[in-house]
């Protein structure tokens, strides 16, 4: 690509994807009578599709290793900030839960490590393997459009 990428643009796309995925999956959970657990566990992964697809669309290439690392790090950083805010809001809104949680610190640490590690791992897989798929689909779509005009 040559120049530096505007990382905030792609973090914005990730934030938009995160919000839409959370709302859509939350609505599905409500409709089927479940909890918001589906949205909480899958939205961070699904949200990675938006900045990856946008990058491929903007530059018509897959990101280099350095670009992928930058995009991934920025989106993981945003994800961790959002998760921290959620934990703080829950602690303020439900202070009685804090004492229950602090009574089992080992279980909490294990749940957080596994939960965060799982999400970050899935996000990495998306940033690693989805750009090539998005580029293939983009080029196929453009080829179909050209063949229809001919």
UniProtKB/TrEMBL annotation:
This is ABZJ_00895 family protein. The chain crosses the membrane at residues 12-32, 38-59, 71-95, 107-127. The keyword Membrane applies. It comes from the Bacteria. Keywords: Membrane, Transmembrane, Transmembrane helix. It comes from Gordonia liuliyuniae. The keyword Transferase does not apply.
